[in-house]
Amino acid sequence: DPARGPVLEVSGIVKTFGGFAAVKDVSLQVDSGQIHALIGPNGAGKTTTFNLISGMFPPDAGTIHLNGTPVHGLPANRITELGLARSFQITNLFEGLSIYENLRLSVQAKHPSRFNLWRDIDSFPDMHDQTAELMKFLGLEGIDDIQGGDLSYGGQRLVDLGIALACKPQILLLDEPLAGLAAAERERVTSLVRRMAENIPVLIVEHDLDRVLSLSHDVTVMNQGEVLMTGAPDAVRADRRVQEVYTGT
Ligand code: ADP
């Protein structure tokens, strides 16, 4: 029964760029209810792995299954439709639209009646309710009218995560969600990721090691395109080889 297996199963993926193997035989799996961290020094192959999983380009070899469905080789938009959402460091907000409008657009995109919504948007109160609920979940209620472009950097990151959530994904890929944030904002985004993960499994790449290890249930460590180890955060913290690749000693 594929529904009982991992939500995401990556098996032996390979990606070579002009003779250089950026990803060599990488396998990992994310189970439901789990935050899985993908860590490793610069150049380890984390971004390439994310690009392969989200369908930016196909793997040269290996397989990727989403809830038991093979997705390797499918275009990115198809993988998104099958339930994979990816949030980037670069913010996706429409600067001239309010926070509410930004989020409602994403809710709208997933609405069963999306093709005739332009006719009479007010006859779909559930869309308003879903958007309001999302604003509340993000802790942004009460500032609905602020324009995307006027929001703080941390606030924009929250809305970005909300946009990914509005797609009702089966799994969420987070690309350095804490990068560039001040301490208080990091705290807020961390707590939001923790709450999101109660409903949606998360695969996260993040450079803040202490924070990502304290957030995760399971960790895959990459180095030079390969998986160095997979294990619980405590095992990763204690592993001599992991310390070596990070400190170069
Ligand atoms: P990380 O995200 O862990 O820092 P990357 O996946 O970005 O690692 O990169 C892994 C290796 O692959 C690096 O040596 C990088 O230079 C190389 N690489 C990534 N993308 C390309 C590309 N499009 N063409 C050539 N080399 C690439």
Describe the structure.
The protein has helices at 46-54, 76-81, 99-110, 125-137, 153-166, 183-196, 209-215, 233-238, 240-247; strands at 8-17, 20-30, 35-39, 61-66, 69-70, 84-87, 171-175, 202-205, 218-223, 226-231. The chain is α/β, with parallel strands linked by helices and 249 residues long. The chain folds into two domains: 2-93 and 169-247, Rossmann fold (3-Layer(aba) Sandwich), CATH 3.40.50.300; 94-150. The strands form two sheets. Strands 6-7-8-3-9-10 form a six-stranded mixed sheet, sandwiched between helices. The radius of gyration is 19 Å and the shape is globular. The protein binds adenosine-5'-diphosphate. Residues 17, 20, 22, 40, 42-48 line the site of adenosine-5'-diphosphate.
In short, what is this structure?
One of its GO terms (molecular function) is ATP hydrolysis activity. The chain has helices spanning about 45-55, 75-80, 100-110, 125-135, 155-165, 185-195, 210-215, 235-240, 240-245; strands spanning about 10-15, 20-30, 35-40, 60-65, 70, 85, 170-175, 200-205, 220-225, 225-230. The chain has about 250 residues and is an alpha/beta fold.
In total, the number of strands is 10
User: So, the CATH homologous superfamily of the largest domain?
Assistant: P-loop containing nucleotide triphosphate hydrolases
Q: Architecture of the largest domain in CATH?
A: 3-Layer(aba) Sandwich
Q: Uncertain spans, ≥5 residues at pLDDT below 50?
A: none
Bound molecules: adenosine-5'-diphosphate
Number of helices, counting only DSSP H or I runs of 4 residues or more: 9
Main location: membrane
Family: Belongs to the ABC transporter superfamily.
Organism: Polymorphum gilvum (strain LMG 25793 / CGMCC 1.9160 / SL003B-26A1)
Keywords: Amino-acid transport, ATP-binding, Cell membrane, Membrane, Nucleotide-binding, Transmembrane, Transmembrane helix, Transport
